[in-house]
Amino acid sequence: MDVLKKLQRLPDQEAVMPALFVGHGSPMNAVEENEFTQGWASMAQGIAKPKAILCVSAHWQTNGTAVTAMANPRTIHDFYGFPQQLFDVQYNAPGSPETAEELKQLIKKTELHLDHEWGLDHGTWSVLKHIYPDADIPVLQLSLDYTKPAQWHYELAQELAQLRKKGVLVVGSGNIVHNLRTLNWHKPDEAFDWATEVNEQVKQQILSGDPQPLIKYEQLGRAASLAIPTPEHYLPLLYTLGLQQKQEQVQFLNDKMQLGSISMTSVKIG
């Protein structure tokens, strides 16, 4: 089958899919019913059922960029020290080798590797379990190339914008503020000042429609260096912002801090 036919597998839709960023927090959210999981479930309201879901998770970092291309991705339990109940969870959504192949043709910025080993890690299934509990929508994961800077990731995300017209829901899964070294277990409902500062700064910048300061997050000062000590949980947000069109509606959900230094803020664009 030639490239043109591959790109026609998912025809353009009348309605453009939104773009989501989910602050996923603890893996335990997968087996709990709380204000955050309720917020995730609400994100599907008003959205036509996707033809496929592409998730960019903080928990799959690679040298190069890969997309899961198997027909039946496994549920990866990429954590330790949690109750057996969490390890028993299976999210048996199908994959889509055809969509993975189309994505390979769509992306020009890098050579996309079709992966048949990874699967769905908890950054994906712990969230989708609440948004689409029936697990009847094909799900693919796109990896984060840890060798590339934030600007590169944002530009790659822009190449994914066509997917929104083809019924593919793109979901970034991470946390705007994510510093596990400073967790406050004694006062879990109180946020550090620097964490609140960065969370608010990021929200205001998203509303402004100018992503450049967020792409250059390392220049935002000491608060940002504490809130984003490593990039993997922050970069999925840039993938969501890379899909944003001018004047699109922005909605924030679960806008709350946990354990002092984890932002559960989620974003729905469009």
TrEMBL record:
Its cofactor is Zn(2+). Residues 37-262 form the Extradiol ring-cleavage dioxygenase class III enzyme subunit B domain. It holds the Pfam family LigB. One of its GO terms (molecular function) is oxidoreductase activity, acting on single donors with incorporation of molecular oxygen, incorporation of two atoms of oxygen. CDD domains: 45_DOPA_Dioxygenase (cd07363). Keywords: Dioxygenase, Metal-binding, Oxidoreductase, Zinc. Transmembrane segments: none annotated. Belongs to the DODA-type extradiol aromatic ring-opening dioxygenase family. PANTHER family: 4,5-DOPA DIOXYGENASE EXTRADIOL-LIKE PROTEIN. This is Dioxygenase. It comes from Pontibacter korlensis. The lineage of its organism: Bacteria, Pseudomonadati, Bacteroidota, Cytophagia, Cytophagales.
